[in-house]
Design a protein that fits this description.
This protein is an alpha+beta fold and about 400 residues long. The protein has two domains: about 280 residues, Zn peptidases (Aminopeptidase), CATH 3.40.630; about 110 residues, Alpha-Beta Plaits, CATH 3.30.70.360. It contains nine helices and 20 strands. Strand 2 and strand 3 form a beta hairpin. The structure holds zinc ion. The site of zinc ion has 5 residues, from loops.
Amino acid sequence: MTDDRLAAEALHLAQGLLRCRSVTPADDGALAFCAAYLAEAGFTVERPVFEEPGSPAIENLYARAGGAGPCLVFAGHTDVVPPGDPATWRHDPFAGTVEDGWLHGRGAVDMKGGVAASLAAAAAVMRDRAAGDGAVAILLTGDEEGPAVNGTVKLLRWVRDRGDRLDHCVLGEPTNPEALGDMIKIGRRGSLTGRIVVEGRQGHVAYPHLAANPIPVLARLVTALAEPPLDAGTAHFDPSSLQFTTVDVGNPATNVVPAAASAVFNIRFNDLWDPDGLAAEIAARLDRAAAGGRYRLSFDPTNSLAFLTKLGPFVDLVADAVQRETGRRPALSTTGGTSDARFIKDVCPVVEFGLVGQTMHAVDERVPVADLGALARIYRAIAASYFGASGAGLHT
Ligand SMILES: [Zn+2]
């Protein structure tokens, strides 16, 4: 397939996806559009729907083509965050408008543009018979921006239960801060949310000896967690960061000592920590600072572990493909928020590379049309090396 046709297909796919109003949990035809394209390109396509009580049913897509050899997966999501007031956008967020070389729309970079580039590249690999006896798989979910319970986690389990092997994965989330080629993500920090409640005794401010004010105790606890830093960072990770997101007393009166005060914090942690180790560190600091004050500490059940994809041939192969197309060596980073890579890493090594993230989740989200073509070429080049001689060392 020529570079021009590859770029044209990536743009066509991105526009088609942008015209679906797939704000989580809606799909609005996004996955059916992908399915039709992939089926036409020779993929076997399945559309499992997952649901559970209390959360909406979610459409997902699994497509695969090729032989019994190593399987390269392109993963992504077709759901998007809400656009806000469409009147604040320069173009209708669901029209897929191209103006002055830029494609506009909610999801242009996060991540319908990335999905479009990966589908065009995967189809090209199959049409050009470039995979040899290997296979290309596509994993798409409509539940990444939402609670993520009926998406990638269940889709990976579903693929495993049918006995299909996935060997290496490229996830097309936006990873570049400024320009295509800046950055590959080779891991992510973990995330843990904790809550502190200090219980005092309500009373009149003029009679403090009859009350127990929880606010000075909570202030000591907050300070004890804010300092000193948890660590100084590691070879591939920034220092862990603990941020308070709210401190609440909820007391409208100026003459009442409140009965309780609470605070919530989130920790983005590196590979020195796991949730149990952090919980122990937090509890030890709070016990020292509370100095006898009574408090309760709890952690949200949803947390994620820090992970790092092993450096070596697969990461090198992706970085080489990026460098050949963009002329720059991408930084290998673990910064940013969580992504579905935190689930995929349990199944196979995963590397993230996609578009420039500057306008993600923002008004006037947009991508240079030229970047879509370049990203499709990079994905095709990754597949070519993966299935070619230079990728042979990956599979032994
Ligand atoms: Zn995303």
